[in-house]
Each structure stands twice: as structure tokens, then as C-alpha cells.
């Protein structure tokens, strides 16, 4: 269940999320995720229609659950082999690790019980892949609400234009005690800074969507909130997309920007691009306001 809370402006969103953050402690750890479009659902990239259709087109028939798991396995293995070609190390690498988890034979252990896919030994590799753009069944979250705002704003500024009535959203997920690694069937995944220093800068972690056990049947896809008890809703704070301009300035004022959250030269470059996008979006919005007033 998702409970939506509509807010009037950037400042009110900033303040309300700050109040949520104050409640986060060892008994109630709160996670945040930002979207530039409030209509987007809490579904991992690999399970969104865009990617499931692409996978099905690659084989020419509708996927069942085994096919979906096999496709995810092959994509992760290809990512790892491409890391080898690029000279990029992967987490937990060893000859034994590859024999136990990356061979066709090793995949067979999932077929009698698809619910054990993916194996926890693969989680850190999946996190690395997710952080570098590969669609997986992970969703990115942060323990800092202002980082979530930054990502929603960054997405909004990268759009060439905004849809009429579009709203920006920040999701607030109370996962319970800090040491909890599950909320219902949803796995809470933390990885170390050795996987990526972006994780440290962004105070990031992941949720892992479970694999539904339906051998021979079409894949079952649910949004994250559908796995949670109905009396523990995820909050969705929304505000008009135009407020991303004021939110961008608030983020920069308090140091939530690309240079800080992606602490490499890539982050520095992204910061320049985002500022240019902000200037363009501000001019576009001002023009629209003038046309409306006329």
C-alpha cells in the first residue's frame, strides 16, 4: 500500500522529509527513493515492461519464470565477463566462486525452487551491475532523504520537457530495526564501499525483489509495496515538477550535488551538465509562466 501526501512547494517537501529523517533510529530505519515522475512504480528495471518485452523479443516467445531467471543469470554472467575484458575486478571473485555460481550447471540448482534465485553470493555482483547501468531485480534506496531529492531533481532536469501535471515524488519506506535484513519477502541489501565508493557517498542500499515460484507459468511481477503488510504503507511525498528548480538550489546549498554524491571526475562533469540543464529548465519554465499570464 502506498499513501500519497501532496505538498505545495519545494520548501515543504524539504521540511517534511527532514521530520521523517529525525524519526530514523536503531528501532526505525527509514529508506528513501526519488522519482522525477510520481507515476513511476516501485518495480526493478529488469521487471519493467520495457525490459521484459525486450527479453521476450530476443527469444521470440513469452517468458515463463524459468526463462526470466535464466535471462537474468546470463546477463549478470555477461556483465562479469565484460568486467574481465575491461580489467575491472568483481566482488568475491575466485575460481571456486565462478565454478559454483557462474556455470550453466550451477544455474540448475535454481530450477527445483526458483524462489532461491538470485543466490545471496551473487548479491554484491548484482549491486555492482546495478550501479553501472545493468537492469537487475534490485532497487536503489538511500538512508538520507536529501540524497533521494537530489536524484529526483537530477532526473527531472535531464528531461527535455515536463509533462502537463507531472509531479516529482520521494518514497519513504520504514523498514523497521536497523539490523533487519528482510521486510516480508523483500531482502534489504547493504554492500561495502569496496564495491563502489558512490555507495558510501550516497548512503545507499538496495531492496531485492523476490523471484516468484511459478514453474512453467508466465512471470509474476509485483510492485514492492505489494509484498508489504497493508498496515505498513510506503509514503509518497509529491510536489509539482516545477519545484525541482527550487529543490536544485536547496540541494546545492546543503551540498547534495553530483560532485559530492559521485566523488570522481565523472561527478564533477555531471555537476556541470546538471547546472546547464538547470539554467535551461529555469528559462523554459519562466517562458511558460509568461505565456500563461499573457
Q: Tell me how many strands there are.
A: 8
Quaternary structure: single chain
Strand content: 15-25%
Q: How would you state the average pLDDT, rounded?
A: 91
Name the descriptors:
single chain; four-stranded mixed sheet; 11 helices; alpha+beta
Topology:
Layout: E1 2-6, H1 10-23, E2 29-35, H2 49-59, H3 65-86, H4 95-101, H5 104-107, H6 123-131, E3 138-142, H7 145-158, E4 167-176, E5 182-183, E6 186-189, H8 197-202, E7 204-208, E8 234-240, H9 244-253, H10 258-261, H11 265-293
Parallel strand pairs: 1-8
Antiparallel strand pairs: 2-4, 3-7, 4-8, 5-6, 6-7
Helix pairs in contact: 7-9
Structural description of this entry:
- The protein is of the alpha+beta class.
- 44% of the residues lie in helices and 15% in strands.
- The chain is built from eleven helices and eight strands.
- The strands form two sheets. It has a four-stranded mixed beta sheet. Strands 3-7-6-5 form a four-stranded antiparallel beta sheet.
- Helix 7 crosses helix 9 (244-253).
- The termini are far apart.
